[in-house]
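Progress report, Aim 2. The chain analyzed during this reporting quarter is listed below.
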Amino acid sequence: MRILLAADGSKYTGRAVDYLIKHRDRFDPSPQLVLIHVRMPIPGRAAMALSRSTGEKCCADQARKLSAQCKIPVLVIR
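Predicted C-alpha cells for the chain:
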C-alpha cells in the first residue's frame, strides 16, 4: 500500500507524518509513504534573474529539507 501525503513544510505536514508513522499498524503491514511537494513557479522577474539550474537546485534543496524534516526518502522529479 502506498500513502500519498501532500506536503508544504508546515507544522501540519509534520503532524500528519507523525500520525502516519505512529499508526502504521492500522494500514498494511508496511505501507510506503510518498511525500509530494509541489511548488508554485518562481515569479517572472525573480525567474529572469536566476538561471534555470539555480531555480531547480533551490527547489531540490527545499524538497530534501522537507524530506529530512519528515524522515521520508526524497525523489526529486523535474
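Strands lie at 2-6, 32-36. The longest strand covers residues 2-6. These observations will guide the mutagenesis work planned for the next reporting period.
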